[in-house]
Amino acid sequence: MDSFQPSSQNEDHSPQSKSSEYPLEVTVNEDMPGSSDSRPPPQSLGPKRNREWSSEDEDQEEDRETVPKADHIWEVETLCGLKMKLKRRRVSAVQPEHHQVFQRLLEDPVINRFLAWDTQLRVSDKYLLSMVVAYFGRAGLFSWQYQRIHFFLALYLANDMEEENEAPKRAIFSFLYGKDRSQRPFFHKQRFQFFRSMGYNARVSKEECEEIMAFNPELWVWGRERAPIPEGTEA
After folding, report:
1. Rounded distance, CA 44 to CA 235, Å?
2. How far apart are CA 3 and CA 131, in angstroms?
3. Could you tell me the CA-to-CA distances from 184 to 41, 53, 192, 196 in Å, in that order?
């Protein structure tokens, strides 16, 4: 008996043929809070200065590629027949314990005096403070390891990212050390170590800030709304 030979007609109707003739159409939509700087620029006179790396920073430049980036996930947004739309979302590193750490530090008497001292909210408005929470999530420390100095390191970095002049950072030094400049090199060393623990990622979007504030919208510091700076007036 002759052996059975599949016909070309069977081949034409195989699943492989159909899939090649009608491929699945995939549309990609990237939505990554924190990956783009959509927050309106702070109100100031001049353009944001070009931040210069210190010699210590340059020595660590090669480490950047080895630092793990923020995780992202792909979600199916819509599925209709052979059309599928994917959405890329950023997974926030901020966890409930980071909010708890932030609230604990707000009870620190020195931090409390600092916030009361910044009456014009030029150094610690609600967006800059929400960036502190974002940085706590990225630094990867245990909750008990976050101390008063980490609050000021994170706030300094937030001002370095968002403010267009040196005055806010000088204000932090003025409050912490007065006219004593001997502590500043050690502060900068700690600042760089903290920045490195964050994977050199200090950019926070407005959406991420608002997401952080929405976790506990009744927290009193989220009422620190900065008044607009009158045109022609220095911050």
Report:
1. 7
2. 73
3. 28, 16, 12, 18
Q: Are 111 and 151 in contact (CB under 8 A)?
A: yes
State the DSSP string of 110-135: HHHHHHHH-TT-SS--HHHHHHHHHH
pLDDT in tens, 72-113: 455 556 667 666 666 655 567 889 999 999 999 999 999 999
- Distance of alpha carbon 168 from alpha carbon 163, whole angstroms: 8
The average confidence (pLDDT) of the chain is: 75
**The two structure tokens encoding residue 123:** 């150094």
Q: Sort 235 into a burial class: Cβ within 10 Å, 0-12 / 13-18 / 19+.
A: middle
Q: How many Å apart are CA 228 and CA 218, to the nearest integer?
A: 23
Whole-prediction pTM = 0.64
**What is the Cα 2 distance to its own chain's centre?**
71
Tell me the backbone φ, ψ of residue 78, rounded to 5 degrees: -145, 150
189 and 200 in contact (C-beta within 8 Å)? no
Between 165 and 123, the more confident residue is 123
